[in-house]
Amino acid sequence: MIGRVCGTGSYLPIRTVSNDELSHVMETSDEWIRERTGIRFRHVALEETTSDMAAEAAARALKNGEVNADEIELILTATSSSDVIYPSAACIVQKRIGAQNALAFDLNGACSGFVIAFNTAQAYIRAGIYKTILVVGAESMSRLVDWSDRSTSVLFGDGAGAAVFELCKDAPYEHVVGVRGDTLIRVGGPCREQRMTMDGQAVFRFAVTTIPQCVNELCQKAGVTPDDVDWVICHQANVRILDASIRRLGMPAEKFYRNLDRYANTSAASIPLALDEMREKGLLQSGQRIILVGFGGGLTWAGVMMEV
Fold first, then answer.
1. pLDDT at 55 over 50
2. CA–CA gap between residue 202 and residue 182 (Å, rounded)
3. Contacting residues for 73 by C-beta, under 8 A, at least 6 apart
4. Which residues are catalytic?
5. What CA–CA distance (Å, rounded) separates 233 from 261?
6. pLDDT at 156 over 70
7. I need a surface site. Which of 183, 224, 287, 308 has the fewest CB within 10 A?
8. What pLDDT score does 300 carry?
């Protein structure tokens, strides 16, 4: 028994910030940012909270999947930027969407969070504990970065994505999850003054090794080759990471979906945002084999192979 995705949804803050706009508040330029990251714009939550965005993405996923809120038995929210320590963002989502029958809790796996939550949902379904689960990835990264630090702050944006999983007895499914414990990405300092710092070169080396490893391991477990994969949806961190990983894998670049130029790095929200955008564009077709790869602070990495 596994869970198949039956609906997706997303939410992006109304406010967009271009690279040119950032050049007015820090020493940078559109050319400098695009050349190093591939990012042109990012959405920034000025009025919305992480829970606001998570709840709206969740409601849209329910509508898209034609699932009633009272059918949801479990809500998992992947976030490292919740509004408050407690109640969890998942509990706030539960209240906002009226999922009165659902257990709800958060997971913090940084940029790998959505894929880790995805695998957690599958574990509950395989165990026969729940049949219908809502998984959300939501982040307000703009509140964690130091906007005077151009090497880090220009990379991130805010947003939320969600997916509903329903029990499906016959769909094939394979996955692998890995974790590494270096603190190359860190949010530290007093609770209300925490700011993100990152060893960008070390993270790059980690990512371009991890993505090919994850894709190859998933293919080996499923008994297929990378040629049999229709789409790879990586955490949208940096265009140089994606390009280097594609070269190492020797796969067609067209199989790697990208939207980081418009949204930047939205951490745990990046993969579900991409999934929902692909659904809206009609890119996801029944029977396609898709690999999701998350990597980020911890350092953590997680991968999943699924069929649409």
1. yes
2. 10
3. 101, 102, 103, 130, 131, 132, 133
4. 111, 235, 265
5. 15
6. yes
7. 287
8. 87
What dihedral do alpha carbons 168, 283, 164, 96 form, nearest 10°?
-170
* Residues 6 or more apart in contact with residue 88 via CB below 8 angstroms: 77, 82, 104, 105, 106
Nearest to 211, CA basis, from 172, 183, 174, 251: 251
How far apart (Å, rounded) are the C-alpha atoms in residues 165 and 178? 23
DSSP calls for 186-215: EEESSGGG-EEEE-HHHHHHHHHHHHHHHH
Mean pLDDT (whole number) for 25-29:
91
